[in-house]
Amino acid sequence: MPIEPTPGAARAPRADARRNRDRVLEAAAEVVAEQGTQASLRDVARRAEVGLGTLYRHFPTRDALLEALLHRRFELLAERADALAAAGPPERALADWLYEFTLGAAAYHGLPATLMATLSDLESPLHAACLAMRQAGGRLLEAAQGTGDIRPDVAAVDLFALVNALGWIADQAPSLAERREHLFGLVMDGLRPRE
Amino acid sequence: MPIEPTPGAARAPRADARRNRDRVLEAAAEVVAEQGTQASLRDVARRAEVGLGTLYRHFPTRDALLEALLHRRFELLAERADALAAAGPPERALADWLYEFTLGAAAYHGLPATLMATLSDLESPLHAACLAMRQAGGRLLEAAQGTGDIRPDVAAVDLFALVNALGWIADQAPSLAERREHLFGLVMDGLRPRE
DNA sequence: AGGAAACCGGAGCGGTGCTCCAGTTGTCAA
DNA sequence: TTGACAACTGGAGCACCGCTCCGGTTTCCT
After folding, report:
1. Which protein residue's Cα is closest to nucleotide D19 at C1'?
2. CA-CA distances (angstroms) from residue B2 to B5, B6, B14, B58?
3. Which of A31, A88, B1, B76 is deepest in the core (most CB within 10 A)?
4. Could you tell me which of A136, A65, A61 has the C-alpha nearest to residue A101?
5. What's the pLDDT tens digit per position in B70-128?
6. Is any Cβ of chain B less than 8 angstroms from the Cβ of A130?
């Protein structure tokens, strides 16, 4: 009977597999930066000098690849929420965080649309990756509602949608990208209670 | 020398051509209603029982086909703006019209995105088709700003973008469609001056 | 050293948008 | 009525896409 060194623990991946995974990820970062989230996966495989099958084994879906690409960014944004909460008044923390979110959502073309689709697709790896970040935003929202700076009828999901929509606007029409800050201000004002 | 009956006037299209054009349009209405603005044009041609070449001659681009599909709707929305302006106070007219716009933008899946792209694509037939409607909305905006009900720093293009974005939210995440009215209210509040 | 499992890459399938052109058909002048 | 020609037709064809599947190779562990 063969001995399982640590039963249940996955065997470490082969060295060539790990190397290829990294190559794919690196290539994906470049290609997605150029072509957006709808980039051709064949192009990614080509740039990584790897077969298409290899790409699909490491990342069975497009979302899985994007998740790997964005994971760190999401983590940072979640941490950033806590930092902002500690650094200043709740309403300010929320506004700053949301604005940083719109900027982050513009990291790649098509990203706002991808994130939005993620909301309803519970199976997508991106859904899970977003969750912690969305919850961090939710905490900022609750704090700002606690001080009465934000209307109580605003839900976390409203925020996520609106902020993604702002990113989408800038993503779709370059001419509107420069109005991003202005539009952001308009929407933020709508979240505040009227005297 | 042959006589040109009315020189410069285009000769009437052949009967079969006109018939085929109508068949394509009818099929397109069905297929786009089912699959959205990104529907397969092959499917449209198939349903119209027409060759792909025929479809492309009558409508050289996807936008041209959509324009033909949406033209009447845009006209009605532009007229509706004038009717609302005559029927009630400017702020109410604007709010009602914008809400009808978000509903209209949800006529087909993907339509908000298509309309948004249209904004920067001056060549698209949809750009021209939207223009009159956008201008009608602009007039409502000016009137509502004249009475002080809407912030003066709101531009017509802001409105178009925000209202499209609301349509996009409902389009992307079915779960958010039911919050459409609520989100609309939030955004509208952001457009009003603070006391 | 050797064998098994993991991994690789690309051929292949069914789909897409779009072009191009040989063949057909409607129309209008003679 | 007929003939000729422009207008129109439809689908084959090209290059691309996402995704699957599998014969051959490579790595790792014993």
Report:
1. A56
2. 9, 12, 20, 28
3. A31
4. A136
5. 999 999 999 999 999 999 999 999 999 999 999 999 999 999 999 999 999 999 999 99
6. no
| pTM of the predicted model over 0.90 | yes
Residues 5-34 of A with CB under 7 A from strand C: 11, 13-14, 16-17, 19-20
Nearest residue in chain B measured CA to CA from A175: B120
Residues 29-48 of B with CB under 7 A from strand C: 38-43
Quick one: pLDDT at residue B4?
A: 40
A93-141 per-position pLDDT tens digit:
999 999 999 999 999 999 999 999 999 999 999 999 999 999 999 999 9
CB atoms within 10 A of CB B121: 12
Tell if the CB–CB gap between A194 and B190 is shorter than 8 Å: no
Q: Which nucleotide is nearest to B43 (CA to C1')?
A: C16
pLDDT for res B194: 86
In Å, how far is A120's CA from the nearest CA of chain B?
6
Q: Kindly tell me the burial class for residue A14, based on how many C-beta atoms sit within 10 Å of its own C-beta (0-12, 13-18, 19 or more).
A: exposed
Cα–Cα separations (whole angstroms), residue A99 to A53, A94, A102, A137, A159:
39, 9, 5, 12, 11
For chain A, the average pLDDT equals 93
Protein CA at A51 to nucleotide C1' at D24, angstroms: 14
Nearest Cα residue to A183 out of B180, B151, B76, B65 = B151
Neighbours of B138 (CB within 10 A): 16
